Amino acid sequence: MLGYCHEDFLEIERIFNDNFNKYQEIGSSLCVIVDGEIVVDIWAGHKNKDRTEEWSEDTLSIAFSSTKAALALCVHILIERGELDLKEKITKYWPEYGKNGKEETTIEMILNHSAGLPALRTKVKEGGFLDWDYMVNLIENEKPFWEPGKETGYHMMTTGWLIGEIIRRVNGKSLGEFFNSELREPYGLNYWIGLPEPEDKRVAEIIPFVPSPDDKPSGFASAFRNNRNSMQRLSLTNTGGYDFNAKETYRAELGAIGGITNARSLAKLLTPLAKNNEELLSRDTVKKLSESNIKTSIDNMLLFPTNFSNGFMLNMDNRDTFEGEGGSFIIGPNAFGHVGYGGSSATFVDPDSKISFGYLTNKLGGEYLINNRAQSLIDATYKNLK
To answer: Is 347 helix (H, G, I), strand (E, B) or coil?
Structure first.
């Protein structure tokens, strides 16, 4: 293990190291910032499955759905400037979207996952996920799975195209360009939504999860296996051949799942909200982002209870109702953030404690939120605050 750890947070360092033995981590990085000061910035392990390349200070990894935190910030920047309205129909900005039952969908419904478009039924052509205009056209012509605003189901991949196209229509820049100019460059982040080719060599290989025959399938996994037309199956397989380790995928501006970064930049991105000094967003907006907008007893996609503000996950403690790991994201009562597929990433900000947190690993688990690897580090962060 390399990096820096403040003496008050040495328990986090110990748990981070233990994860390599306990959970057979391959490579990982962790950063904790408190009131603008880095107190933990550590990394260890290897970039690849064969363990021939060490994970270094400059190693990048795919953030998967933790990218949605960056996506949400882009939207809220435009909202605060008066260029977008949460309550406005999407058709005001994107007229072609208003057909086949989607006419009344609002910006807010996309952010809180009630828009009814968590997957695409129309067969996506090979390589379709790389073709922005093609994906936008498919989305325009899709029918929602439910009446928008009436139910909730996590929009795993589609959120990126939905929000990205709205940003393009309003601002004129692609999602990646907007993120670069508004967040990556001003805050000095090693974080891209659409990675430049010269950075490819820094990216860690993602090691897929291989289930054991003894694993009990979750509700999501059962729906995926048993119904080829389920939204669960379509969301993961009807993408046009999405391959997270392919170089062309690095280049794609996949705002829901495709951010490439390190733990330090995940944490730095949210630091202005932890300090809550109105540098990035107003205090009123930060307060609203910590408040539940949609809280479900059962999420149509994930098939367990979820809790969202506009664009962010909130505290979700499902330990009493979800068997095994992966159904929870336990953070402070006013904290908000996001997690990534298979327990691959976690990021959150807690304005009460002034924490901003970033975690990445390249070995996927079978979970849909986070597992004990990340949760143990979050728990230790709160425990060791002075």
So the answer is: strand
